[in-house]
């Protein structure tokens, strides 16, 4: 009789493989193999395929983990924080992982495989989750007089995402210090929320 599966152990093993996948994609790009991922994780190929049927499935899992972390961020927001504060804190949260030296390689791999249906679907789910949350916060900030009122909340959400995506693209291009540049990104999002100064 097979032993019951320990959910905590299963999740820990999946996270171990996800971390190894990030390392392999950063080192080897789109050509990273499951054998390389297994070596980095220190596990056999049977264990890998028990959790992920393909390398693409691992890539999807990495993207889905990012979406899950985004949901958790918004769900656990400080109830005393204003919507504007949460928006700006989300910008910091969204780019925090870009300081990881593996980020550039992973972003490049996602760009390479982004047209594959399952990966495109995971990217779309991540975008929809983020856009919905940012739109609701932007609308709440507008109602509270903490964000410009002359532009639709959804448009503000799209522009915040555009700024974050552009920041990530510069990280992927190399030679861009995410930690050093994050304060300026947050400042730019604040300026977007404020709108043009009077008389300009």
Explain this structure.
It comes from Pseudonocardia parietis. Pfam families: TetR_N. This is AcrR family transcriptional regulator. InterPro entries: Homeodomain-like_sf, HTH-type_TetR-like_transc_reg, HTH_TetR, Tet_transcr_reg_TetR-rel_C_sf. This protein is mainly α. The protein folds into 2 domains: 1-53, Orthogonal Bundle (Arc Repressor Mutant, subunit A), CATH 1.10.10.60; 55-194, Tetracycline Repressor, domain 2. It has helices at 7-28, 34-41, 45-51, 55-75, 83-96, 103-113, 117-143, 153-173, 178-194. α1 crosses α6 and α8 (153-173) runs antiparallel to α9 (178-194).
- Specify the CATH class of the largest domain: Mainly Alpha
Helix content: over 70%
pLDDT averaged residue by residue = 93
**In terms of structural class, how would the helical and strand content be classed?**
mainly alpha
- Unreliable spans are none
How many beta strands in the DSSP annotation? 0
Describe the main β-sheet briefly: none
How many DSSP H or I helices? 9
